[in-house]
Every structure is written in C-alpha cells, then in structure tokens.
Design brief:
The structure is a homodimer.
Chain A (H helix, E strand, L loop, with lengths): L9 E4 L8 H10 L4 E3 L2 H9 L14 E4 L5 E3 L1 H11 L7 H21 L1 H4 L5 H24 L10 H16 L4 H7 L1 H11 L2 H14 L6 H17 L2
Parallel strand pairs in A: 1-2
Antiparallel strand pairs in A: 1-3, 3-4
C-alpha cells in the first residue's frame, strides 16, 4: 500500500480463494476502498473452530467482517454485503429497489450453493451434473437475463447486485472458462454486464491480483475436482 | 374478514404449509396487518413453471410477494422479509443492527436448508441425521443462544430477527415436538423467546389457524417422511 493510502476500516476473514468472499471484497475494490484481508487457511479454520462464546460474532462459517475501530463483527455474506454496501453507497435509496438487489444477491447465493453442492455435502454425480448444466444453470441464467431486461440490475448508479453478478458469473467464467459459452448463450446481457462492471480499473486490478494469488482455484477440495471432472467429460462427449 | 378490517396490500404465494412462508406471514400476523395468501398447490406449481418472461418477477421457487396496488413482485424470502419489515417497522434504524438482524435471518435460513436437505436434494441417511442431531443442531442452537446473550435478538422493540426465530424454532417444535427437548437443552433462552413472541395474541391466533389448516405438516414429501423416520428411530434407540 502506498503511504498516502487511507487505512482500512474493515477486516474480511475468508478462506484463501475468491468464491463467496469476493461478493464482499469486490465491493471494496469497485469503490477503491481499502480492505484488510485475512486468508490464511489455518487462521480461518481456527476462527471457525473457536468456541461460540469466544468468537468475534457467533458464526458457523466464514466470511466474517470485523470493523476495526469498534471491534464489532458480522457473519453471513448477504448480511455483510448489505452492511458495507450502505457505507460504500451501493444500495438504492428506495426500499423496494434495495430489496430487489437483495433478491438478486440471494439468487446468486443459490447458484453458488448449487454449484458447490451445498458447501460440499456431496460430490457431483454425472446425472445430477447433466441436469444442472442442461436445465438448472440455463434456467438460472434466464432469470438473471430477465432481471436485467426488466432493469433490476445493469443501471446507473451501480448497486451491490450488479457487483454480485460479477462475483458469481465473472469469477465462475474466469475459474471455469468452459462455462463461458453457457453464459453467452443463455444470458448475453449478463455476460456483457460482467465485462462492463469488471472493467472498472480498480476492480479489474483486484481480480488480476486474485488470479495471481489463486490461479483458477474455484471452491476448492473434492467438489472442485468433481466439477472439473464433469467439465472434462462434457468436452470429451461433445467432440 | 370483518367488514371493518383494512384491505390487504400484499399477496403472498407459497406452498400449502408454513415452512419457509411463515418467515413472512408471521411478520404480518405479529403486527395484525392483513395479508392475502395464495396457497393452492396447483396454482403455486403453475406460477413456478410459468415462463420466466411471463412471471410477475423472474424466480426459481416460492415464496413470492406481490404488492397489489402496484403489481410489483419480489421473490427470495430474505429479500421479502427485508422489504415488508421496513413497512411493518420491524427493522432497527441503525445500519449495523439491521445487518445483524439479516445475519440472524440467514442463520435461520441455513438451518432450514440443512433440515430439508437443501430443498430435498436427498433424503436423510442415518449417519448424516445422527451427525445433525448430535452436533450440527446443538452447534446452531448455541450460536442462536449466544446471539441472544449478546443482545442481537430478544430486545425491545421486536425485530424481524426475533420473529424469524419463532418461524424457525417455534414452527419446528410445533410440527416436530420430539425436537423441543433439544432446543430446551442447548438454547433455553431461545425456547423462552419463542414462547414470549409466539404468545402475542394476533400471532398466536395465526399459528393456531395454520395448525388447523395443516396439522403438523413440516416441509412435506419424502424429506419430511425421512425426518419423521429418523425421529422415530431416535426415540426407539433411547428407550
């Protein structure tokens, strides 16, 4: 950090990969507001295993955001996004439009949960993956595309819902490029939105730094291995 | 409805059981504000299967809330709760406290997802259920109890997070009474909070009307059957 950069006001604790954490870190990067990141695997695992009474906020899993000045902490990605988006001026003023942004964020969270098999409760089996890629994913993409068509996302000023789209589909296409044609086909406007928002220089620089740190690491572990095995089989079958 | 009752401003569309819908309907009942409910199974199923372009809001699954005057609609339970809670004055003014309520709501939603096996992606297997009842559920309960101890819930004025606790654990204990001792043991304060909030006459009357309409129906289908089979086996094994 340059000596003139402001001090970060928040610390984000999350596993050493973008996945769910980037829904939060991209907000800061978009606004060029500094964020302290704690991403050491052993440290995050220790936080998670700390007795509930001793945790900064009682929580089941990361991300956790800590406000450095007050030592107050929050868990649950959508709650953290809601909180920091107010500070970063990424929430519409009108109550209905703000709720619609939360709806889009929850849709993103649902897709994330589906692709990582509900935080890894089971690996992908072939018949389930085929159903996901042929039906569920295009169905979800059509929901996002229609949300764009109706103007729930993609407007000026940019909202946390727009950045959530980049955190979900931008990061997905970067880490699992085999899925980019799926997005282009079912949701060309969403593909364009990812490019447009992701081109903001401060966000683009942050995404590059994540690519340098983590490569194409997606959700990690056995689940990621099973996603990659499925994608490989898909590409063999279409040759 | 009596001729003097105000006209409902919203319609809630959800399956004919309380489960995820009651996180919304309990807010209205608590405030004694009328809510139009659409719960016919065939109608809800038809909404869900409607082409995305023709849906009132592009969505994957219910609940859906429609504002009758404007015909605007929202999906995603946490987004709907956020929106109607502002109107019903169940959101703290301060941004951090409002986000903490959202954190508690998301915790509730996670428990709901675990117990219904992520909207029914698989039935309960014995080893997974034993792990859930012995470890995950008490762990979750300790998180909620600690949230109460720290004053994130259980205060005056009541918030949507307090009512979410009743929607999750009050409804769970009513439908699956075998689990009430689990709640009393791991989270006595949460048990008390459920009784206190649930005793508000207008909410108590609404819960009674749901009990008359649906009996102890919980999440329905094969998943509910597998929960009940597990609970039965638990009780045989402890005799």
């Amino acid at each position: 950090m340059s000596p003139s950069a402001p001090e970060p006001k928040y610390q984000l604790s999350y596993w050493p990969l973008p996945f769910r954490g980037c829904f939060i870190s991209y907000l800061f990067a978009y606004r060029d507001v500094p964020l302290l990141e704690q991403t050491d695997f052993a440290e995050i695992d220790a936080l998670r295993r700390t007795r509930v009474k001793d945790q900064s906020v009682p929580f089941m899993g990361p991300p956790v955001l800590r406000e450095l000045a007050t030592d107050r902490a929050l868990s649950q990605m959508p709650a953290i996004v809601l909180y920091v988006s107010r500070e970063l001026e990424l929430v519409p003023d009108a109550s209905f439009e703000a709720a619609m942004c939360m709806k889009v964020l929850m849709d993103c969270n649902d897709v994330l949960m589906e692709i990582c098999r509900y935080n890894g409760s089971s690996v992908w089996r072939r018949n389930e993956w085929v159903e996901f890629r042929r039906k569920r994913l295009p169905h979800w993409l059509s929901i996002f595309e229609e949300s764009l068509t109706r103007g729930f996302i993609g407007n000026e000023p940019v909202t946390f819902a727009d950045i959530a789209i980049v955190a979900l589909f931008g990061n997905m296409m970067r880490c699992l490029p085999e899925l980019e044609p799926d997005v282009i086909t079912a949701a060309p406007g969403i593909h364009q939105l990812c490019s447009r928002i992701g081109a903001k220089p401060t966000l683009a620089a942050f995404i590059n730094s994540e690519a340098e740190r983590y490569g194409k690491l997606y959700c990690g572990g056995q689940i990621e291995a099973s996603i990659r095995a499925m994608l490989e089989q898909d590409s063999r079958e279409t040759q």
